[in-house]
From TrEMBL:
Listed Gene3D superfamilies: alpha/beta hydrolase
Keyword line: Hydrolase
GO molecular function per UniProt: hydrolase activity
Domain AB hydrolase-1: 43-277
Tree of life domain: Archaea
Descriptive protein name: Alpha/beta fold hydrolase
Keyword check for Hydrolase: yes
Pfam families: Abhydrolase_6
Length: 298
């Protein structure tokens, strides 16, 4: 199958999704976007897997309303961020350089889906005061993922070449199909928000999928492999407060996962959300932003 034809960014990216870049100490380029209130309380947004900074646009309106400056980086190999063998243990170093670059000395962090583990990994950064998880994946020993995610995890470990072909096929199809095609991977139906109609949400989800593979699937494959292996930190060692939001109709991450995470974390709250995977973001995103704004360190 040939590669997809070039597509003007305006055909599938929101107008405000253009990224800025930061040069890391090892010379890599890290791309990021900001949304919400430019002068607000900083919150690091960790996108899903697959996913990109574009997903943060779903929370742009509540971020403005809550006085939050939403900082959404593309992890290595995603969007405009250069690829590298960055692990869950390494990611906080990239995040720390980004926060320093933006003169942030106190922040919250929100992780959606496969971004949850990356948000939790940032607990060791002195800048991070609180965490919130939206439909977050758990370590292999905690909760379960859907059958599709289990299959993808197995391919990432045993046949990454096959998973690469699968992701390229999905992107090839997504370029040519209605945005609802992309939504089908994360939701039963396209949700609406106070600020976004269903068709706008679908466009953002499609743009998120396409951006996640803009540099090819290698970054996503690496992350899928990382998330299917034991994590390099213990949940019991996370001392910052964590708010866990879990959709009860989530087909990507089992509802029991969120509750199990909250039970294992030393300082955690749990909220059940009447939603599917994507709906957890649109329904509980405002609450997640509110939760991480509470300052707990002096």
């Amino acid at each position: 199958m040939g590669s997809a034809p070039p597509i003007p960014a305006t055909d599938w990216l929101p107008d405000d999704a253009e990224t800025e870049t930061l040069s890391l100490p090892d010379g890599r380029r890290l791309a990021y976007a900001t949304y919400g209130d430019a002068d607000g309380y900083p919150v690091l947004f960790c996108h899903g897997t697959p996913g990109s900074h574009v997903a943060a646009r779903l929370l742009a309106a509540p971020a403005r309303g809550r006085g939050v400056r939403l900082i959404a980086p593309d992890r290595p190999g995603i969007g405009n961020s250069e690829d590298a063998s960055v692990t869950l243990e390494d990611w906080p170093d990239d995040a720390a350089h980004l926060l320093s670059h933006l003169d942030v000395d106190a922040a919250g962090a929100v992780g959606f889906s496969g971004g949850g583990p990356f948000a939790l990994a940032c607990h060791r950064l002195p800048e991070i005061e609180r965490l919130a998880l939206l439909g977050s994946s758990g370590p292999p020993s905690v909760g379960t993922t859907g059958r599709v995610q289990q299959f993808v995890g197995a391919l990432s470990r045993h046949a990454p070449w096959a998973l690469g072909r699968l992701f390229r096929l999905q992107r090839w199809v997504a370029v040519r199909r209605d945005p609802a095609y992309a939504v089908g991977f994360v939701a039963e139906e396209t949700p609406e928000t106070d600020a976004l109609a269903a068709d706008e949400v679908a466009l953002i989800v499609r743009a998120d999928m396409l951006t996640s593979m803009a540099r090819g699937p290698s970054g996503i494959i690496r992350e899928q492999r990382l998330l299917s292996q034991p994590w390099p930190f213990a949940l019991e060692d996370i001392s910052v407060p964590v708010s866990v939001f879990q959709g009860q109709n989530d087909a990507n991450v089992a509802p029991s996962t969120g509750k199990a995470l909250a039970q294992r974390l030393p300082d955690a709250s749990f909220e059940s959300v009447d939603s599917d995977h994507l709906g957890t973001v649109t329904a509980a995103g405002d609450d997640a932003l509110t939760a991480v704004q509470r300052r707990t360190r002096v």
